User: What shape does this take?
Amino acid sequence: MEFFKSDKVYDFMKYRIPFLGLSLFLFVSSLVLISTKGLNFGIDFVGGSIIQVKYEQEAPINSIREELSKHEAFKSAVVTEFGSSDEVVIKITNTSTELGSDIGDQISSVLKTTGTFELRRVDMVGPKVGDELREKGVIALVLALSVILIYVSYRFEWRFAVSSILALIHDLVIAIGAISLFSVEVNLDILAALLTVLGYSINDTIIVFDRVREKIAQSNSGELIEIINDSVSNTLSRTTLTSFTTLLVVITLYIFGSEIISGFSFTLLVGIVV
Assistant: This one.
């Protein structure tokens, strides 16, 4: 299937300056957001507990907060609605509660006056484990970029490798900037989404670069702008089909998926659009 004629060449490079300006603006804005506002690290990376509670009636969020604030160990708890009005998630970061004790029983005891409910989920991560996960997450991203750099250098040449890494960093930083802007909770799912964005981006880059390399070998004029326009135009139908179909799936996940995967699908959505 072809949305665009394979023999038609579109002059993409004619608009390179304004789009470079847009990319630079988004990139710098993302860096400013990350350095000033920072990231909203979840329990996975800072340690603490997550308790998911489902009530038989509408969850009395104000009463839950009031009861939790009476206990020193739960004063830092954040209570939010989870998907529906009868379900809430309680997040306690850097909890002083011993990991060996049953925090679920403690929460049940504290909230017994707020109504009839059941505990759906109790997750606990120690601060040390959270630090290790955060460190290993950064290492995973750096290793992914390094391996991509080596692979592209081997398959093409160093100029292609450098430009591909710059493009990947561009996509990654803007995606993280969006996460910071909308205060999306950064957990292991978000890390998986960022790694997926890297893989998705380099796949498209390799296909375009492969066509550029072929055109350079075939071209007599050696005009790089013409070669780039020709290469991108030739792969435009493939890129559009791949991006559009993936985007439809991710939008469906974001709109109709549960609260648990909203951060994952949001990150993928931003990454694909960028």
